[in-house]
Specification:
alpha/beta, 13 helices, eight-stranded parallel beta barrel
């Protein structure tokens, strides 16, 4: 495991102004909030950040703002995935020039490339930018899986491979990836998509890419600490709370997350179409669930976090 990348990875949404332009000032506030709330790494724009709803120019500008706002306090990684390798290379090179620590990269989607083409995609992008890599395995959205043989060759051939976001939500797959990395003796962190920490950390997981931290960063940090300290009774209780919150956050994703942030005094505007805002009934449900989990009484309001917490490392 790479302890430099263990812990909670912050994944900001992309704020929009009423005229549907990117709100870069609010994005800077959000980056600072996540850093001060204990995120050890920042990645953007993931799907929570509406990467597929952003223009190329917007993604390039956001890369610069991400690095600038983080100010070297934590590593910053730019999600550069595209269906075409050359497009990903272009954004990766721009991100490196902007000062990002590295890139997040999925397998090329739509084309359903074979194993050799997938490997060439990752090699081309990482060699072009010369930075670190967080591989992103999300076959539900790409219809292409980073299989164990592909990952093994990536581990052997990509020196900057520091972490993987494993988004299948399949426990056997997650455990097999952790076992492969341990067998190879590689210094690579394995993160689950979503805050499924009680199930993933005991088999070798390093943390998670967190959307719930936008709304309840203290709760997510408490769960992580309980898991790495093997306080199973406390972790079980916290995992139930986080699991309930996660179900809310994934409904009409990420529009519901943006609405929950508004309730916490951190407005970020609406999502771009085809994503629609929550209905009145959905808003009422979100308020009830956040109340039931205790978010309103225990989490920070507004853009000022309670202070950066030092995370225990495995």
């Amino acid at each position: 495991m790479n302890k430099n990348y263990a812990g909670i990875i912050g994944s900001p949404v992309t704020p929009f102004n009423p005229d549907n332009t990117v709100d870069f000032d609010t994005f800077e506030k959000q980056v600072n909030f996540l850093v001060e709330s204990g995120a050890r790494v920042l990645v953007h724009p993931m799907h929570i950040g509406e990467s597929v709803n952003l223009t190329g120019d917007e993604r390039r500008t956001l890369a610069r703002v991400l690095v600038s706002a983080a100010g070297g306090r934590v590593p910053t990684f730019v999600h550069v995935s595209y269906a075409g390798t050359d497009l990903a290379v272009d954004l990766a090179q721009h991100s490196a020039k902007a000062g990002a620590a590295g890139v997040v990269l999925q397998a090329p989607y739509h084309w359903r490339a074979g194993p050799k083409a997938i490997l060439e995609h990752f090699l081309s992008v990482t060699e072009a930018c010369g930075g670190k890599l967080i591989a992103y395995n999300n076959p539900q959205t790409t219809n292409v899986e980073l299989t164990l043989p592909i990952l093994e060759e990536m581990l052997d051939r990509i020196p900057g491979f520091v972490a993987i976001k494993e988004a299948t939500l399949h426990m056997e797959t997650f455990a097999d990836i952790c076992a492969l990395i341990a067998r190879k003796g590689k210094n690579v962190a394995v993160h689950t998509a979503g805050e499924h920490l009680l199930a993933s950390i005991p088999v070798g997981g390093s943390g998670c890419v967190s959307g719930c931290s936008e709304v309840a960063p203290r709760l997510v940090q408490e769960l992580y600490q309980a898991c790495v300290c093997a306080d199973i009774e406390k972790a079980r209780e916290l995992q139930c709370k986080v699991g309930r919150l996660l179900k809310v956050m994934r409904h009409n994703y990420p529009s519901t997350i943006k609405y929950a942030m508004e309730l916490m005094g951190r407005p970020v505007g609406l999502s771009r179409k085809p994503l629609l805002p929550p209905t009145a009934e959905e808003k009422a449900w979100v308020k009830r669930e956040l109340t039931a989990v205790g978010v309103f009484e225990s989490e920070p309001r507004g853009w000022r976090a309670a202070g950066r917490s030092e995370q225990t490392l495995l």
